[in-house]
Automatic annotation (TrEMBL), chains A, B, C, D:
The protein, known as: NAD(P)-binding protein
Assigned GO CC terms: cytoplasm
Domain GFO/IDH/MocA-like oxidoreductase: 136-261
Domain Gfo/Idh/MocA-like oxidoreductase N-terminal residues, every copy: 6-125
Length: 358, 358, 358, 358
């Protein structure tokens, strides 16, 4: 009989609940054996949706970790506990799939990488879901086989639907800011398409609060634009927004010396167009899950396969630290109004050099 | 100094006025010397818009025709007078650009061709504007150079925006019916893409009155679908409608053994898309002029060039009779509920043969 | 613990194998307990892909049917055995999900319906996958809530990618012909959108062999166009083809008195566009599975839910007979060259009436 | 009889020749009375294409200016002579339509504005053609009537087709650099959409030479990205490129608090799509004229109308200086690697302030 990976999910918020369902019903080689969340509403949800499949429900992460038989842990709690739980799980000898970002701090993110290095037998992955999206993979394959020549410019955006409830204001307190929270995906894609060994040369960002002035109290914005230069003559530029009227709209262009690949230039929910008195209309997904559901399912299946068959993960954990480093630098640049520079081995060029340059 | 073609326009209704302006201001090698229309409002329009350029205004076609110096006449009156005026103009030794169709009767249409044959020195053209549209020409060039293999199937539609005013009911009395009035363009395109020598094998059509039941009194419909078989294994199928909510939508697919060319599959007024709370929206032209304005201007310029430089016209006048023949057969098929058949030289296969077949 | 529907799959050809995998790994409430196929290659495939999950492998349908515990049978064999196996399974008290069409014969199709009527406790469904497609469902919901007024015209096509191997020639011997095999989907969609109680008034079809002349020996074509009138003033028209250069392209327009819904007007494999020297290009799925994979998965899950929870199926089995009736009439019209008519209760109007009409 | 504006065109290079033809044949209220160009090939072209319409041909600008009857001069020479000729023409009492930019120097540009101020009776316009494009105008009207709320972010790009001939290397010597030459259009659009009174707060740009390393000798790049902040919480970001594989691609997004308008998000030459073995393909214009021909014709007609009827021009000449100021600042930022800042009245914040800030 087939061996199934024994999976536990920590955190049953919006994304955690989805991960649980993916491992429960859409990942044939995995079995969802346990979940945990201290929130009673989440536990109730688990009772209703998971318990009759035999999934154990915990309210404490450590207790769950001690449950016999668990082989892999999916961490989908608030960002602030990602690293702590990941390190504990690694310590307990579990494979780990951790939601992005590892942390909003470069140092804390690095500590997860350090823990993982000590256990090369374990699979530890930061869940950058877009790497599992069929369209992004198609784009990557085209670039990789030379269809667009040498990639030189990347434009990428992650834009959320306007949420007038004020959700994003509270959220900003712990999110690390728009460049870390939204554009982390664009940064990760850049490191994927330009190569994980790309070395950042400079970072610059600006931002405004167009619809949520209250974001200022967390030094955050609802619209941000950033530019990242890489050594070797490559540039990426990003746009993040929280005020899209029509829905969520991520998109990416990889521009090479002989062509360009565009992912999601014309967003759409499905293959329907409506002709009506006001014109021709299509709808777009309201949120990232509407856009990336299948990518998350792929992620669950591939992570499972890597664990069971001891295959290499499709991405390096260290890239997740690079992404946080760049995201934090963008956020800092926006806050200080200053360009931030790095030397050819990626070390920060300090105030002295900047002064000398002037 | 450059010689300019001396042009007169008969009929200053919606399309006639546009023709007048095209020859006045967008056809450098032509000069609009005269116009005529018995309607006082049209004359007034001409006074305001044309007179100060030196254009003479007549209320009688024959008087205008007698005006010295006129070399070419554009006929844009109601369909019922097209043939008569065209024949008069040919008789008077003028080049003729006649709006489509020559007539709603095959015989009357043929009489124009007969008159033109006697004057091979004159350019006589029926204005199928789509032949001058950049997109249709591009499609034709692709087919002609073999990009889609051998063309075998054509799908083509001409669909007007819903006009709740009842305009189309009155209009139907003289239009010849939807297949003659709307689909005549699709038929002409078919004869262009399949070749002017294509011989019709059978014709079948059905229709309904979905929004304008009053059309029934003229045995017309507001939505019609027809199929035309050609000898040699080719099929064209058409859709005509008067109830599009979003605007005018013509479109054509030429399907070959190795590919397909689509013209106007995704209609649009311009290059603007709006992202708003209800989704992503674009608008489409409200009428055929919004779609084909530039084609009409091209038509004016090329007709002028053919007259001045004695070049062959880009299309045969006889094709215009073929188009009427097929349009009338579609209308008859819809009215009788019967398939209409033709033998290999295009002669009607009568009731006898049909009975024998059964 | 959750009860899982015990499912068996008969036939492990292209589509059968996919059904097996869907019930195995993407249908959380089902368990794939058995499969059968007499072909050794299919059994070998099952050994490699299914056996280690505990699925039993049979080479005989009757033996499989006798296996204890099976609650539902999925029939994905060649069309000619659909009905026989379905009736046997019903007789054995199993729920049935049968691939389309039930049969290429109206009478045989009806025999399945008759068998199902005797067992109202069983769920018997013909798998018209498009009814489970998110885009078609979205289109239906829009129509259903009145967004396009009263639906009056349906245009629908099912066009396969050109397969130069000659596959379709052999296939045509048993497929029932292009109108039954391809357009059965379009007919089913029409019955869905116009309503299951729509009564056909007339049927007319033409066709050509543009790339596979050998199809003539089975009286089939590689391109067919058909028109179906319904009593009450509704028209559907269909196009089926086996020679698309770019890939599979199904599409449907539902045209109402106040708007139009278009499904898959601009086909695409994913959200990628490539800008290259020859222009901007996107790819389209090579076959129906590339387009409808998720619909098949939805079908498996919903069928399972209906069986387990005794919910009504989302479609009537009798509609599947209606679809075959119309498909066969189209095929007959193409073969005879005659329009086929039906009276207001859907009974065939015979040769007498036709003659009398003349 | 109608009075026609007597127009002269200076410079018959690529764009000058087009202006000449537009005023000759597509501007009914204008008459092309004279042209001048010292290049014998251009004069020969004029002999062949213009002389027989009565247009006088000069090889010297001053001689042409002295030709009696000229009322308006179109300047389409190399950028370095724009300002000089414009000032001379103003001095001679002529209306002026000058190609963009007025100069690559802010001061020189301002000198044209100063000259124009002394002759308020004359119409002096810098030809930013996009302001006459139907799509941009539609976008503006939508924003202006509040459809997208308050505009906050503009993304705009001007990207040329790759020209491997090395043309752009030579061209870079006098063009002012990519930000002045290409993005000047995007800057002008920004000043249009955000308002002519928008005050720049900061400017930052980076660039690379991905395909034409020889551009470095003119301190220019073939790909540049820039960000411009405006006081009042608005941001524009730009991309300019000389290496598009598929063709010219300008595009603009105006992002407001309640919606977004996109111009030319999905570029296309016409309404044709080709389905072929490699997928579905459309082509895009090879150059800006393929995209903006009709805008140039509109420009000619509206400039003519303003001159003849003494109407206000649709744009302020001073905005053209603002655009050069921002373009030069982007170019300087790229060259120095430094962010450039401006105070709330738009005055440059010097090195002192920058140092003090550190």
């Amino acid at each position: 009989m087939v061996r199934k990976l024994q999976v536990a999910v920590s955190g049953l918020g919006r994304m955690g609940a989805r991960h649980a369902l993916h491992f429960l019903g859409k990942t044939p080689r995995a079995e969802l054996v346990a979940v945990c969340d201290p929130d009673p509403r989440c536990q109730e949800w688990a009772q209703r949706n998971l318990a009759h499949y035999g999934t154990k429900i915990f309210n404490d992460f450590d207790e769950m970790l001690a449950h016999p038989g668990i082989e892999a842990v999916v961490i989908a709690t608030v960002t602030t506990t990602h690293a702590e739980q990941a390190i504990k799980a690694i310590g307990a000898g579990k494979h780990v799939l951790c939601e992005k970002p590892l942390s909003t701090s470069v140092e804390v993110s690095q500590s997860v990488v350090d823990a993982a290095k000590k256990r090369p037998d374990l699979k530890v992955m930061c869940g950058f879901s877009r790497r599992f999206d069929a369209s992004y993979r198609d784009a990557w394959a085209r670039m990789d086989r030379g269809d667009i020549g040498r990639p030189a410019i990347i434009r990428s955006q992650t834009c959320d639907k306007l949420d007038p409830s004020g959700f994003f204001v509270d959220y900003a307190q712990f999110s690390g800011g728009i460049f870390v929270d939204c554009n982390i995906h664009d940064i990760d894609l850049t490191l994927w398409f330009f190569g994980a060994d790309s070395i950042v040369k400079s970072v610059y960002a600006v931002g405004i609060t167009a619809v949520q002035p209250a974001l200022k109290k967390w030094a955050d914005v609802d619209n941000g634009v950033g530019i990242v230069e890489f050594w070797g003559g490559k540039i990426a530029y990003f746009y993040g927004s929280r005020m899209m009227a029509a829905g969520q709209h991520d998109m990416t262009e990889i521009i090479g010396t002989e062509g360009k690949v565009v992912v999601n230039g014309a967003p759409q929910t499905n293959l329907v167009e409506v002709h009506e008195a006001s014109g021709v209309r299509r709808e777009i997904p309201p949120n990232y899950y509407g856009r990336f559901e299948q990518a998350f399912v792929n992620e669950a299946n591939e992570f499972t396969e890597c664990c069971l068959d001891d295959k290499p993960l499709p991405m390096k954990l260290s890239a997740a630290v690079q992404a946080v480093k760049i995201g934090c630098a963008l956020q800092e640049s926006f806050r200080s109004g200053l360009k931030i520079e790095f030397d050819e081995i990626g070390s920060r060029v300090g105030g002295e050099q900047l002064l000398a340059k002037l």
